[in-house]
Amino acid sequence: MATQIVMDHTGDSRHFFDYDDLKRLAEAERRFKKLTGEGFTAATRTAAGELKVVRTVDPTAEETLV
Which of 8, 24, 50, 62 could make an S-S bridge to 17, C-beta 3.0–4.6 Å? Predict the structure, then answer.
C-alpha cells in the first residue's frame, strides 16, 4: 500500500491507496497534480534513504511527501 503524506500549515494528512486499485490511483494522481500545480514540492525516499524530488506519481514509491 502506498501513502501520500500532504503537509501544510494545518499539519499533515495521509492518503492511502493501492496501485492496483485504478480508482484510488487516479485520485492520488489528481491530488498530486493539484498540489504540485499549486506550488507544493513532492519527494520520495531512495533505496539509500535520501530524498528525491519527483514531478509525477512514482508507482514504486511506498511514500510520497508533498
Answer: 24
pLDDT in tens, 28-60: 999 999 999 999 999 998 888 899 999 998 877
Cβ burial, residue 2 (10 Å; 0-12/13-18/19+): buried
Nearest to residue 65, comparing CAs of 15, 20, 9, 22?
15
Residue with cell string 533505496: 47
What is the distance between the alpha carbons of residues 1 and 61, in angstroms, rounded to a whole number? 10
Which cell numbers in the block locate residue 30? 489528481
User: Which residue, among 44, 52, 40, 56, has the nearest Cα to 6 in the 3D structure?
Assistant: 40
